[in-house]
Structures are given as C-alpha cells and as structure tokens.
Amino acid sequence: MAHSGDSVLILDFGSQYTQLIARRVREQGVYAEILPCNAPLSEIQEFNPSAIILSGGPASVYADDAPRCAPEIFTMGKPILGICYGLQMIAYDMGGEVDRSAYREFGRAELIIEDKTCKLFADIAERTSVWMSHGDKLTKIPPGFRVVARSKNSPICALANDEKKIYGIQFHPEVVHTTGGSQLLANFLFDIAGVRGGWNSQNFIEATIADIKKQVGDKKVICALSGGVDSAVAAVLVHRAIGKQLKCIHVDNGLMRRGESAEVVHTFRDHFGIDLDFADASEMFLNRLAGVSEPEKKRKIIGAAFIDVLAEEAKKFSDAKFLVQGTIYPDVIESLSFKGPSATIKSHHNVGGLPEIMHLELIEPLRELFKDEVRTVGRALGIPEHFIDRHPFPGPGLAIRVIGDITKQKLDLLREADAIFIEELRASNLYHSTWQAFVVLLPIQTVGVMGDERTYDNVCALRAVSSVDGMTADWSRFPHDFLASVSSRISNEVKGISRVVYDISSKPPATIEWE
Prior knowledge:
Blueprint: E1 7-12, H1 18-27, E2 31-36, H2 41-47, E3 51-54, E4 80-83, H3 85-93, E5 97-113, E6 127-140, E7 146-151, E8 158-161, E9 166-169, H4 181-192, H5 201-216, E10 220-224, H6 229-242, E11 246-252, H7 260-271, E12 276-280, H8 282-289, H9 295-314, E13 320-324, H10 329-336, H11 354-357, E14 361-363, H12 371-380, H13 385-388, H14 408-427, E15 436-450, E16 453-466, E17 474-475, H15 480-493, E18 497-502
Parallel strand pairs: 1-2, 1-3, 3-4, 4-9, 10-11, 10-13, 11-12, 13-14, 16-18
Antiparallel strand pairs: 5-6, 5-7, 7-8, 8-9, 15-16, 16-17
Helix pairs in contact: 5-6, 5-12, 6-12, 8-9, 14-15
C-alpha cells in the first residue's frame, strides 16, 4: 500500500457519496481508503487505520438485509465518525433506538449546535446549513453518548462519546452544500483522532517506487502505453522505479487523433528515455472494422484486435513477468462497492485477458488514486502539461465519433476538423474551462456552395460540455463569434466538410459521446 504515516478507513454502506468522503479526507492531506461495510474484521485490523468513518447508505438498520459492519470495530479503540446511516449503525449496535421518521429529510436543513464544547464542531457557527438525506431518525441515544446538535426534524442530529472517541452525525459533511463540512472533517481527523497529515503526491511517488522495486526485483515488465493520462503516468512511475527493465508498447490503431501516435513515441522515447516498441496496426484495425456501423460491435472488434496485437508484440519480450495497467481508484471502487456492480474494472481500463494468456502478474501503481490525483502525480513526474490536462478520450478512439461505417477517408476528415476545434479552444482560452470537446462526423451529405460551384459534402457536429465528473453534463455556452470562427475554418480548410452544426444537448437525456 503506497502511503506513509496515518490513514483513514471508510466503510461503505452503499452511499452515493462514499467516494466523496475519501476525496475530502485526502484533500486534508490524509490517506483514505474504502472497503465494503461487510469487510472481515481481519482485513480491517490488517489495514490498521488511525480512524474509521462509516458512510451513509439508503437502507434502514431494521431491514432484514440491512448492511452491517463487524461490531468489534466499536471496541478496537479507534476514533469513529458515523455519517447518516453510519450514525444509525452506531446507535443500533451500541444500545440506542432508531425509528422511521415522520418527515423524511432530503436537501438543505438548518443545524443547531447545542453543545459548543464538542470538539467535532469547533470553529463552526452555532446555526449552520447542512445537507440531509435520510428517512430514519434517532429517538434514543446509546449509553455513554450525549446529544450535541439538532435540526427541526431530527432532535438528535449529532451525538458524541468523548471517552471512546465515537461520534455520529445525521447530515453529510462531505458535500459542498454543508457549510463547515471540511472544518468538521478536519476537527475529527486532527483534533479528535490525532492523525498526522502530509500525504501528498511526492511521498506517494516515493512509496510507490519502493513498492514497485520490491515487487519486480530484477524481472522485466511490459506496459501498454496508449498515451492517455492514466497509462502515461503509470508508465513514467514504473520507469522511474526500474528503468530499462520496463518495455512499453504503443499500438497505433488508426483511430487516434491527428499526430497522436508520433507525439507519444517522441515524448516517451526522447523526453523520458523509455524503451518503446511501436506497432502500426492501423490497417488491421480498419480491415476488421470495414462495413461495421453498430457502436457496440465496433467496441468489441477494437478490444479484441488490441489484445491480439499486444499479445503478438509481447512475444518479443517473452522474458517479461509483469504487466502494467493504468487502473485508477474509481475503477477499483466500482468493483468493490457494497451492493455495487459485480463486474470488475471497466473493459477499456484493462487489456482483457492478456495477463492470464501470458501468465503475467499485474502492476497497478495508480489503483489508489482519483483522476485529479493522477494528474497531480503526473505533473510531479515532469510529464508535459498538454498530456496531463487533456480532455477525456474514449477507449475506442475516433471509431465512435464516425457515425456509421468507418473508412480511412472519414477518419482523416474527422482528424482535421477535430484538430481545428481543439486549436481554436486553446487559442481562445476556453479549453481548460471545458470538460470535453470534440467533433463528430455524421453519415449524411448536404448541398453547399464553394465559390461558384455547388457541392455535396459531409456534415460534422461540434460537441462541448461542462461537467465536474462526467456523470452529468451541460452543453458549453461558447460565444457566437468563437463558433463562427471554428465553423469557418473547418469549412475552408477541411475539403469534404461543408456544413458544421453545434450540439446543444445536455446529459441526461443525451450522453456526452454520440455512440
């Protein structure tokens, strides 16, 4: 586990906000990790946290299938903070009572702090706005606890047992709508639990390099380097640890953006001195995709082709014992979350069955990091900013941005139009305020006029959205002059596109990508 110093364990009871708790703790410079609430006690003891946070969740503690944690955690002597369902779990397990509330509370509420001596609420206003999301409420506190705050609908909105350092709150401090939420978490972490901060990208890098050296020894390692943020950071981190024992493979599938493969090869061979094997498989990918229009079929063909090419290339390095993957923490949580999806990591974040086919052990140096943390580590490793700050790019590449069947001619048209859009965004200082922007080539031609001649050329759509996490997104309100400039450049410079439209659909109901 690549962290040093104190750490916090978050037990997940199925809350939509569990990842957010981990992020907020890490923002305080404290390492946090999530386990499902039903993790065995032995696993919790092995993690040896400095403090434990119990997340919220949608269940009722009295339901037959109510999620439970090992009750022994309350006698481990670890400081504990229960949030929402976590509060009710504390009360239920330690002799209090929880009843179905007459009035369910969802959204903003006013919290009234009745006991200002409670360390949990130090430096927080006596009346403050908090975010509620619960149906049950506490009606009787467990022995040894006292009530420290209430709301209009919850007479027991926060309770404390200073002797055991166990605290529970009915609201969500991790969401931005709770005023003073960060202060409350800081109070719990530093004043109550006494954890030391200092977890940051630099000590993550140092600890991870030490872990990789120990895991690999003198063996050889393969890394599939797509050029995306995650694989780039993973490759540079492993290279920093083991140098020439790492062999990277970059596959050009013919579905990349303009000049992307050449840039990947130049950056990682020349800038970092990484041993990089380049495989131009664009013809093979295009042959397999010929005549295929259905999006899911495209994805499966691309995934299978990638495994075939990588397996073939990897034969050159038959003495390799490890494979690097750029798995990041949200992928791990998705496969572990309580009552979450049973599927493991998303298919475009790994290389299918390749580790099993080649009998390779996995190295996943980023599996403890969120995306913004990956970018911070990338900057600390000296990866060029234009690699770090790039918008998300789909695993199947431009194949899902050419609507309908795929040809090299269509891909080339799309590459040119997309490059113009991104150039103009950067030139107008709009790129960094946009979550994702790209061009889609549509399977229709329309009549146009070029000079004195009528044309019958392609239509492309510009797509740009603002978002925080990609789960929901709104279309970007660009100045009309900017859109006019992009449209004019594409129509004039990309021979074969005569009409440009702008997509003003939000997610939901639309998705960000078209396919």
